[in-house]
Structure formats: C-alpha cells, structure tokens
Amino acid sequence: MKIKNYVPEFEKSWVYTKALSYLFSPFFDDRSSKKDTFDPEIYSSTIELIAVEDDKVVGLLDIGIYNQEFSLSYKYHPADKVAYFANLAVHPDYQGQGIASKLFAVADKRLIEEGVDVLAIFTREGEVANHLYQKWGGQLVATDYLVVGNLKSEEPFNFEVLGNQGRLRFSRQGKEIPFYQREGVYILSDKAALEQFDIEQVYKEMTYIKTYKKTGKK
Questions:
Q1: The listed CATH number (3.40.630.30, 3.40.462.10, 3.90.76.10, 3.50.50.60) that belongs to domain 2-142+206-211
Q2: pTM
C-alpha cells in the first residue's frame, strides 16, 4: 500500500471508496458522484492524498488551505493561515489497518511545511473518527445537532392533484402554498431544542481545532 498525491485517473476509485466508507456512517448523506474540488478563490493550496493498493484507492484524505483573506475572517479560529479538513475515508475492507493515520502523518508534515497555523476539523458522532482527531491533536471547540425531522409546532399541510392543470396543489389551513418542506434538516446549537421536533434522525456534530506553532513545530 502506497500513499500518493491524488491524480484524476483515480477519480472513479476515489468516489467508490468515499461512498462505501460513508454508507453506514453518520455521513451517509454526503454523496459525491465525482471527486470533490476546492474553490481557487478561497483556497491558496491543497493537500489531496490517496492510499493505493492493487491500483485502486483504499483510502483518501483532502485538506484545503485557505488564502490569507479567508483565513483571517475564519469564525472558528481566525489566523494567518487556516486549513480545512475536507475528506477522510477508508474503504470498509481496509479499515482497522492504520491507513487513516498514515494518510494524516503525510498531511500533517505538509501542513507544518506550509506554515499552517490552524487545522479545522468537522465531524459527527462516532468513536473511531473522534478518537483519531483527538489523538492527532484536535481540541473540541463546539458541538451542535443535525436533526432530520419536522417542527412539532408546524401546521400540517394538504395536497390534491389538479389533473386538468397537470400539477399538485399544496395548501395549509385552506390557503394555497407554493411549496412545503417534506423532511427538514435543521442545525441546532442547544440540545434542549430537540424537544421541539418530531425526529427521524439526529446526529451530534463536533468541531475540532488543531493548532500549529509559528516556528513550524507542533
């Protein structure tokens, strides 16, 4: 197994590995049909790594390094140079072999060489991922909750089929409405607010910050 810089010829294998890794994880809703890219107006450089075995991707890691303007205005931890942890995935058949740590070891060295001040990591609940981020030096700075469901206080809606117009008609309390929210996705900052929802799924989200010293040493 080798750690390499990502090249486009591995895109299909990259997508498969990310999809399979996320399928039964709290990130099941992150569905990429192509390799994620970084906006050059925001990012000054990137670290895009893959772990390859038998000419297929078995692990991947992406980190984008923001330009100075965006870094200085970064709300979680403004600094001269902020990096964003965008992707980490290991194919299910290869998990538990230390591939994620090998990928991060290479990325961590490059972040130091780049003179990065701060690495921001966003994740959801899950013992393995959170253990790794803490092990790698991430400090938990914020939590929130992602809720899939509907507000209990929301008035129910009705719909009917307008065959002569070839469309549906939605209404609430007898008044036509142009749209309705079939299934909400809400971000909550306070756990107590969960009581306001009829919940289908809820995920706890965590934000970690890893800081680097200006001298280039951790």
A1: 3.40.630.30
A2: 0.84
